[in-house]
Amino acid sequence: MTAMVANRSSHNLKNGINRTGELSEAQRETVGEVGKLVTAYVAFQMKRKGRFPSEKVKELLGDDSDETPRPEVSRVLHEVASKLEDDNAQLFGEMCDKLQITKTTVYATFVGVVRELFDTGINWGRIVALIAFAGALAIHCAKAGMETKVRKVIDWTARYVVWNLEDWIKNSGGWEGFQRHFHKHPSYSSLLLTAAGIIGVGLAVAFTCH
After folding, report:
1. Is residue 16 part of a domain?
2. Quick check: pTM over 0.85?
C-alpha cells in the first residue's frame, strides 16, 4: 500500500505536531531509530558539496552521526532526497533565507511547512520531502548561528513521524517498503515534483505568517 491516502486523519495531521505528553517505550525506541535515520541524512547533506568539514559535522551531530540501524534504507533516502533537492535547487537554496528564520520562528516555520505537506494525505514522496526539508532547515540553522536548533529540528522530525506517520509507514511495508518502492519506481520525478510543489506552498504560507 503505497498509494496516496487522501484526506486521511487530516485534523490529526494538522494538530499532531503540537502533541505533548509521555511517549511509550515503543515510541521512544522508534523516535530514536527515526532520529538516527534523519541525523545520518543531515550529516550526509552537511558534507555533500563541501558544505561543512567532517569535524564540524561531528561537533554538531556527534561522532556516530553517520551510523544508522538501516544502512540500505539510508542509502536510498540519501539518493532520492538529494535528487529532490538538486531538481529544486532554487527552492531549497533560497527558502530559509527568504523566510528570515530566527531562533524564535524556526519551530513555527517547521510546523507550517509540515502541516501543508501532509494536509491532504501521505505518500513516500511526501515523507522524502519532509526529511529533505528538515535537512535544509537544520543546515540553515547551523549556518545562521543557531547551532542548538540543529538537533531540535531532527527531534521534531522524528517525533512527527512517530505521532503522525508511523501507522501509514507500517501499513505500507515499513521502511523496507520505502526501499522497495523506490527500487520498483526508479523514475520517480513526478512524485518528488509534487512533493516539492507542496513544500513551496508551505513556505509561502509560512512566509505570510511571519
Report:
1. no
2. no
